[in-house]
Amino acid sequence: MWMTYTSSTEATARFYCNMTEESPKCEISLWTSQIFQLMGTILGIMGMYVTDKYGIKVSTRAGCILNLAGALIRIISSLPMVPLESRAGVLHVGTVIVSSAQPFFLVLSPKVAEYWFPEDQRALSNVLSFIANPLGVALGTIIPVFIMNKDTVTIDSYQFLILNVILTSVPLIAFIMSMIIKSGTPPTPCCASSDNHNAPDFCKALGMLIKNPHFYVILIVFGGAFGQLWAVYTASDSLLNQLGYSPSVTGYTVVVACAFGVGLSLLFGMYVDKTKKFKEVIRVCMCGFFLTSVAFNVITRYQPGDNWFFLPLIFILNALLGICSIPVFPIGIELGIEATYPVQEATSSGLLVIIGQLELFLIITVMNVARTNQNIDFVNIDRPGYQNDKNYFLANDIWCGIALVSALIALFLLNPPYKRLAFEKEHKEKSMSDRSNIEKGSISPSPSIKSITPSKNCKFIEH
Fold it and tell me: How far is CA 105 from CA 84, 130, 174, in A?
């Protein structure tokens, strides 16, 4: 739902604005993406509070209901009989409702990992939950490639209706599945931290986050990775079209980035579970992302006709962008929870997601403004029949600069303590000591002395 229209900007402008090509007066595909960032930022606090207060089951159902309701309204916007002047408004209403679901969904993965998995499987379980986001982006970006044809789309076409009906099947299935959830937590805690009932209340937790300097560094790094990856794909369709690439290239590049990013996320998740090297993995990823962004900036300054290998290079660089950024999402959230314990998972991860959405919105806005500047780093592309009035190269320069700043911060300032792991280690040592004393008869068993061991209700992942 999020990136669906960004991979078919010209077709979207034709159907919703009756324009032969996208212009600043009809940037509807851009705003269908930006609405998600705005709503994620505005409603993020609500998603955090509901998830921590009422649990996984309530938050899941709330997100699924909003997602399905918004998707149905987007179907209405794509009906050819809807007046042209009303289509964009109906589409944006549906997008607002759909985007209101993400504050619930994006904070669920660390909550599920904390309550349903032991400490040596949390990172991987978090990865498995969080990769639903890039996989959904890949699905929503590639489906329009097979349905949309910008040369045949008119204000009376049914292509957008078919597209939205197909996409709505996903939130419909999710809604049905959410209705059969029986419980948000297992009967027996999987680890000591999930059994800790001394977590601060919501307002106090926010105060603790604000006072934690390590959390600010994680905010910048996580938000940078989140914003930099998706910002370039918001602009890449128009950029690649201007350079002369096929309209389907953008959809395929997003799929390649998501596929490789998801694959490496799984490997990094297993690695971090065994080694607990959260910081090291993120540092490598952020430095790799900066180097790849520079290479991408250089290669997109040439038209595909200049050399045959430019198109394969575009796909290779997009794969590297996904590899170096997508693993930062779940591992960065785990690191944020570690650094802010005993703050509840949805609160710390929710604030990370909110700032990530805000950074994405700001990066896209800055890049969009930079496109209108024809005085700095403007390259006149001589392509017949195409209006060369956008400065994507300056926008890419700014994008690379942001990647450099994020990499330097990760390299030199990212060094938070692992408070949750320290708590669990201390709890284990105390439990072992108490058990040893009981066996020696030096102390009597007490109901207050207990050791948290995974129950049969906990989920395990075979490595």
Answer: 33, 9, 11
Contact 360, 231 (CB under 8 A): yes
Under 8 Å between Cβ of 155 and 343: no
What value does the CA radius of gyration of the chain take, rounded to a whole number of Å?
24
Q: Which residue has the higher pLDDT, 390 or 97?
A: 97
Phi-psi region of 328 (alpha: psi -120 to 50; beta: other; left: phi over 0): alpha
Residue whose C-alpha is closest to residue 98's, from 179, 8, 181, 168: 168
pLDDT at 385 over 50: no
Look up residue 284 and give its DSSP letter. Answer: H
| Lookup result for tokens 């800790």 | 196
Q: Residue 460: pLDDT band by 50, 70, 90 thresholds? A: very low
pLDDT-derived band at 14, boundaries 50, 70, 90: confident
Are 149 and 344 in contact by the 8 Å Cβ rule? The answer is no
Of 202, 276, 262, 155, which Cα lies nearest the Cα of 52? 202
- By the 10 Å C-beta count (0-12 exposed, 13-18 middle, 19+ buried), 392 is classed as buried
Paired tokens of 117: 């998995």
Residue 453: in which H helix or E strand, if any? none
pLDDT, residue 75, reads 94
- For the chain, give the mean pLDDT: 82
Where is average pLDDT lowest: 251-260, 294-303, 438-447?
A: 438-447
Neighbours of 103 (CB within 10 A): 30
pLDDT at 461: 44
Q: Where are the alpha helices (DSSP H) in 200-340?
A: 202-210, 213-243, 249-275, 278-299, 310-325, 328-340
User: Tokens for 249?
Assistant: 């290239």
User: Chain centroid to CA 217: how far?
Assistant: 18
Statement: residue 459 has pLDDT above 70: no
3-state secondary structure of 416: coil
Cα first-last separation, the chain:
33
**């759909």: which residue's tokens?**
98
- In the predicted model, is pLDDT for residue 454 greater than 50? no
Cα dihedral across residues 351, 356, 361, 367: positive or negative: positive
Q: Are 286 and 221 in contact (CB under 8 A)?
A: yes
Is 262 exposed, middle or buried (CB count within 10 Å of its CB: 0-12, 13-18, 19+)? buried
In 3-state terms, the chain is what percent helix, strand and coil (to 5)?
A: 70, 0, 30
Residue 81: pLDDT above 80? yes
* Axis-axis angle for helices 56-77, 159-178 (nearest 10): 160
pTM reported for the whole predicted model:
0.79
